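Researcher: First entry.
Model:
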Amino acid sequence: MQRKVLAGLPAVMLVMAFTLLVSGCASHLPPPPAVPENATAYRIGPGDSLGIFVWQNRELSTEVPVRPDGKISLPLVNDMTAAGKTPTELSTDIQDQLKKYVNNPLVTVIVHSFVGPYAQQVRVVGEAQRPQSLAYRDRMTVLDALIAVGGLTPLASGDRATLVRSVDGKQVSYGLRLDDLIKDGDMSANAPLAPGDVIIIPQTYF
């Protein structure tokens, strides 16, 4: 019954409802949580496009998408998990599998399009020109995310936008001043992002 009710609500009401459900509210953004040194390497996620190059074996070199289940399919290799691995880790795994068929295989993995694991994405919802999930990048900011989604729609209420972040296992909402940032160039309204952040842009009141 609850699913049917939610399905009938306009998108803007769902955005407002999600904002109200977060457990806390703060006016200033904290710095992003510390990122372990080994977490700076990009980790492959579903939706990524991978170039697999096997040295001196063109017939084994290919470009493959990472499926929703996190796996890829390659010539001579059964389905292999790619999601959550770095390109270097995946290269090593592919080499180990190809050793059964190729002498001393040398494999290189290149990520052509970046999506990343779900937990490493930043999501922008509501009144953005192109609401979407973005692969988190080191030192990514709110301004970077806004540029990627094409800015705000004419109906956006930028200074009522919120950023939802998981802090100590709880969802906490922080106020954003997107109009000040975009229209006035107030860089004090910019803020660092963290993996898993959600930016919610509501519609303006009439």
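Researcher: Second entry.
Model:
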Amino acid sequence: MTQLIHTLEECWYLSPPWGQKILPLSVSLLEKVYLTTANSFGYCCGVEWLQGDWSYAIALNDEVVYTSASRLIGTGKLQPGIDKPVFDLGEKVVFRCNRDISKLRIVQGIHLIDDFWTYTVEWASPALTECDGKLCTSGDRRAWVTDTDLVRV
């Protein structure tokens, strides 16, 4: 039974939330963008798969604004002088965690925080419960980790 649970968890972690084909990004990481709701330019400093679509993190002056692609206009100009992330969106990695569970994961987000790239992976499988006769899953199961926490498969 334990092996079946381990296999089920491994399948869960390696099943991308976006389906079989990863959806293209509307703007690139580090691209200069125009945020229509703020009438201002900024840079895309992160992207993460949330609630069925890409959520973009935009650095505007001294703050970060999270928004959908429909509120962005890309310029095609990339911010110079910053190294690219070590891992790509959708890449399979080994998550170096201390728990006795499957360590294989998929990179579901990338963010630049204080000049360091962080990566979003699921750290726990969902806990399924029944809520008013419907199947519900547990809350946020994602973790932001650095490239030292991950190993390329």
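Model: Note on the second entry: The longest strand covers residues 40-50.
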